[in-house]
Design goal:
- This protein has 69 residues and is of the alpha+beta class.
- The protein has one domain: Dodecin subunit-like.
- The protein has one helix spanning 19-31, and strands at 6-15, 37-50, 53-66.
- Strands 1-3-2 form a 3-stranded antiparallel β-sheet, with helices on one face.
- A hairpin with a 2-residue loop joins strand 2 (37-50) and strand 3.
- The longest helix is centred in the middle third of the chain and has 13 residues, at 19-31.
- It is elongated.
- The relative contact order is 0.35.
Length: 69
């Protein structure tokens, strides 16, 4: 297996449903322009409160992908 070089980007996804959905939203959007994605790390989780209820979740994550040869 050849040596790989990875690049990282940082994204924040949001969802009214769940933290997992916020992560998937960010990955789906990134997949439209980035290929060879290999891993992600959640660096921050937070939510927005409106009228004493959770309005939406936000998750910041780093996505790693391999560079083209």
């Amino acid at each position: 297996m050849p040596d790989h070089v990875y690049k990282q980007i940082e994204l924040t996804g949001s969802s009214k449903t769940s933290i997992e959905d916020a992560i998937q939203t960010a990955i789906n959007k990134a997949a439209k322009t980035i290929h060879n994605m290999r891993w992600f790390v959640v660096t921050e989780q937070r939510g927005y409160i409106d009228n004493n209820a959770i309005a939406y979740y936000q998750v910041t994550l780093k996505i790693g992908f391999t560079l083209d040869e």
